[in-house]
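fold-stage: in
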Amino acid sequence: MNFPALVLLALAMSTDAFAAAIGKGAAMQKPRFLQALRIGLLFGVIEAITPLIGWFAGSVATKWVSQWDHWIAFTLLLVLGVRMIREGMSDDDEDEDASAAPQKQSVVMLALTAVATSIDAMAVGVGLAFIDVNILEAALLIGLATTTMVTIGVMVGRVLGHLIGKRAEIIGGVVLIGVGAAILYEHLSRAGG
């Protein structure tokens, strides 16, 4: 997997957290930059750890499935992408409940939200174990992208609200599917060439 594909993957992984950050920002009254940065760092660290966990789990299984590794990576990214698109198109009221939350967000609730939005990064980590990728570089990029996107999301949450949050998930899902298709194409073209 080349560097531009890793950057796109990192940005796609950060869209769930970005959407959640918009909701958190909408619930906070005039969030300050340092507040947003702290929330961004919390999400970023958790989002960087989960693909490492997934990668280690996937590495254990790689010797048994090496002939199908590219199909596994593609399928995982496809399923996650479709799920993100479906959630982005859904018309649920989860984000409206977040606006009723108190201004001060507890660290525990923020951490739980960060873990919930990073489950897909763990699954991506499993998929990355089956292809040639530097997992530390990928995890660092995912964490950095998430920190940046969450910080921005919190700061602009009150202004952008639900409109951008849903679109971010849809765009992230499309990017994940594209990255999965690129992995599959790259492997199949090498095998055929």
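fold-stage: in (second)
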Amino acid sequence: MARFLQERGLTLSEEKTHVTHINDGFDFLGFNIRKYKGKLLIKPSKRNTLLFLRNLRQLIKKHATMSVNDLIKLLNPKLRGWANYYRHCVAKKVFDYVGHQLFQALWRWAVRKHITKGRQWVARKYFLDRNGYWRFHGRQKIADMDCAFNLVEIAKTLIERHVKIRGAATLYNPEHTAYLQERKLNKQSRNSWF
């Protein structure tokens, strides 16, 4: 390998290069790539997940006196971006874990904000109960309308799998136009309103 790279004027850094077996796995760009019982799975790395949770907790703790709506406006882009980055891999359990940990951090934030109130009062004020599932939310009156601010539910982020395209399928071969048109319609229908 080193000789192959050297012919092209490239070298591997000894400190940064780590050769490992695929069954042990490795982390790359926030993903953990590993083979489990013969099946390759790509998951969010544990280190990156814990770092993201630590940043969320610090953000919540730092803004202890902030209003609910402003806190939701701070958290939503972070949650959406992180979920969109990992929604193409095996991340459902990780999303559930992050959602649970975030709920606990927000519960502590709400209870700490209202020390003299009871836990049921805090639950009614900050959380909507939907069939046993609590959702963090806020309300604001804008021009005589009651507007709701809801926190992104990261646990309900859909996992989107990529389906490989046939190797021989090209736009320039008329035999494959029906196949490519069908793929295009399937992709559009997932993202459209209709």
